[in-house]
Amino acid sequence: MDADQALSTRELYERWAPTYLPTSHNPLMRVEQQAMIELWPEVAGRRALDLACGTGRYARFLVAAHAAQVFTLDLSTGMLRHVSAGIPVCASMMRLPFVSGAFDIVISGLAVGHASSIDEWMLEIARVLAPDGVLLYSDFHPEAARAGLTRSFKDESGHSYSLPHHRHDIATQRQAAAQAHLTIETVKEIRVGMELQETFPNSEEFYRRWHGLPLVLVVRARK
């Protein structure tokens, strides 16, 4: 068993936290963020949650857009130490410590694959969303996971780790949203060599091999 396979997702993020930048720090995150901002809901004066916030990348956008209140939730205390915007809460995204209808906006970036049950994840978000509330989320695309691609990082000592990922197909996500009484408004796919074109070390071979493969999924839904 590889070292990363013996560690939980929470432990892996604790190892990543010291080197995890609070910005979109690679080509995939930059194009993911662009797609998220294109679907960004009206935030001013509304209550918002940055769910599985990491270092609070989207919390800063929420505060800058004049949200009335912003909470940042993550399971990793190491990640939360880097959050500079919003009210930090350490908890699981599967069991949200908030009353029903607490938020008008829920934003979640690149985290759905850590949910063991997409049905429970959707239901819990629907519970804390107020009527007409908006859920905007992104994730590593299930087709990329099916092709064998992984999200990986190096810790402070240079050791490489891959994050575990639960593959939730688009049809399954649609079904889970419907069961939670959420209406999916938009689905966007970020594909290699199409939406993602930024160069990086060895990118020529990457683009040749994976051209057209969807890497990131972005979904906007409404209660």
Number of DSSP strand runs: 9
Low-pLDDT residue intervals, each spanning 5 or more residues = 1-5
Number of helices: 8
CATH architecture: 3-Layer(aba) Sandwich
CATH superfamily: Vaccinia Virus protein VP39
What fraction, in percent, of the residue positions are helical?
A: 25-40%
Order of helices and strands: HHEHEHEEHEHEEHEHE
Oligomeric category? single chain
Determine the strand fraction and express it as a percent band.
25-35%
Give the SSE layout.
Elements: H1 9-16, H2 27-38, E1 47-51, H3 57-64, E2 69-74, H4 77-80, E3 87-90, E4 103-108, H5 118-128, E5 129-140, H6 142-146, E6 152-154, E7 160-162, H7 170-179, E8 183-191, H8 203-210, E9 214-222
Parallel strand pairs: 1-2, 1-4, 2-3, 4-5
Antiparallel strand pairs: 5-9, 6-7, 8-9
Helix pairs in contact: 5-7
Can you give a write-up of this model?
By secondary structure, the protein is an alpha/beta fold. The protein has a single domain (4-222), classed as Vaccinia Virus protein VP39 (Rossmann fold). The protein contains 8 helices and 9 strands. α3 links the parallel β1 (47-51) and β2 (69-74). The radius of gyration is 17 Å and the shape is globular. The model is unreliable at 1-5 (pLDDT under 50).
